[in-house]
């Protein structure tokens, strides 16, 4: 395995990650939460940039969510489902074997203790069920009959179909033909869960076309449909709403770490595709003196075009109804790549773009090759098969831990389990 790919040069060197380089929140501002204003602007990012035909449907969602988020009955219904159906709280697990391994790889033998936030233990195997249940509950509250969404890797589709089944809603998932072929097992899951899968053959037959197809269908039928977005992306209110449904991750992790260690962690780490599991973990820590790292896919290397490191190399643009950082090829969103199909997105949630601009969160990237190594490390050392998305966070977390002292701790978000990836990884490794 090539562990010295040129992309690594874009990561902070170990000695630059030391605790002397703390990213503390600014003390001059009251904006400790780095939250959006009433119209969904996170600084210069976010907002709502929509074609006319989507303005009314999305405004209806924004108004309904504004009511729901202030309704204790709605919130307690949501929290109860997380407990009784999803299985929350998820564990904060101290990964001693992984920690010892990292220490054994350093010259000095030091290295922070690594804790894993076990979102892989959620029902349906990842964090996505948290926001899918929230969106499904909101849809019911609005009197909608059907959930509609696009899916790339199929994970959002499966989580949404799960929520729809539980709450007695219909579910229609649009998916590009290429993704349907790559993610056959997820297509079967969605169908078994009662969803209708619409195969999209336009253009590149992938996520971008699936988004367009699903939005077009929604605009015609929004009186009976709710559009469920799969990450902290899209027009207002979705980046705020999906973050709110995910922030339970960080609330639990912060409390669990305080209880176990009597103090806050020194750093927290999560992978960033659209950014929902990361915002979910980060939100509770934004006002704390805790270093925060988002990890993007460097794919085959940042010097190639085959990556999806939006926060590292993107430029300002408008995508999917939001102003954010975008990897662009001329006027078009670039064709991006990651070994983890859930991270394969040319944009990113606007709150991440804001947190990067404000200097509150550090964004790094790891390559496909580093991800595969970390994937295997976690399997062998801890008996945990991570999602390839989550293995990005593990890879960076191991590097970060190696740069810290034995007395320090870090939390890495294990956003999902890797059952969906074992076939592919087995092929790549030739086992
Ligand atoms: C979808 C997915 C991701 C990426 O989505 P975010 O919105 O960036 O969290 C990460 N991990 C897993 C397991 C996923 O399924």
List keywords for this structure.
single chain; 431 residues; alpha/beta; Rossmann fold; 2 domains; 6-stranded mixed beta sheet; 4-stranded parallel beta sheet; 16 strands; 42% helix; 17% strand; binds pyridoxal-5'-phosphate
Terminal CA distance: 15 Å
Mean pLDDT: 92
Class by alpha and beta content: alpha/beta
CATH topology of the largest domain: Rossmann fold
Radius of gyration: 20 Å
Structural topology:
Elements lengths: L40 E2 L2 E2 L5 H17 L3 H15 L5 E3 L1 H10 L7 E6 L9 H14 L4 E5 L4 H13 L2 E7 H6 L1 H9 L3 E5 L6 H15 L3 E3 L10 H9 L1 H14 L5 E5 L4 H7 L8 E9 L10 H4 L1 E5 L2 E5 L1 E2 L2 E2 L16 H8 L4 E6 H15 L5 H15 L6 E6 L7 H8 L2
Parallel strand pairs: 4-16, 5-6, 5-8, 6-7, 9-10, 9-16, 10-15
Antiparallel strand pairs: 1-2, 3-4, 11-12, 13-14
Helix pairs in contact: 2-4, 3-14, 3-15, 4-5, 4-9, 5-7, 9-11, 10-11, 14-15
Characterise this structure.
- The chain has helices at 52-68, 72-86, 96-105, 128-141, 155-167, 177-182, 184-192, 207-221, 238-246, 248-261, 276-282, 310-313, 350-357, 368-382, 388-402, 422-429; strands spanning 41-42, 45-46, 92-94, 113-118, 146-150, 170-176, 196-200, 225-227, 267-271, 291-299, 315-319, 322-326, 328-329, 332-333, 362-367, 409-414.
- It has 431 residues and is an alpha/beta fold.
- The protein has two domains: 8-36 and 87-125 and 247-429, Rossmann fold (3-Layer(aba) Sandwich), CATH 3.40.50.1100; 49-85 and 128-242, Rossmann fold, CATH 3.40.50.
- A hairpin with a 2-residue loop joins β1 and β2 (45-46).
- Mean pLDDT is 92; it is low at 1-29.
- It binds pyridoxal-5'-phosphate.
- Pyridoxal-5'-phosphate (PLP) binds next to α11 and α15.
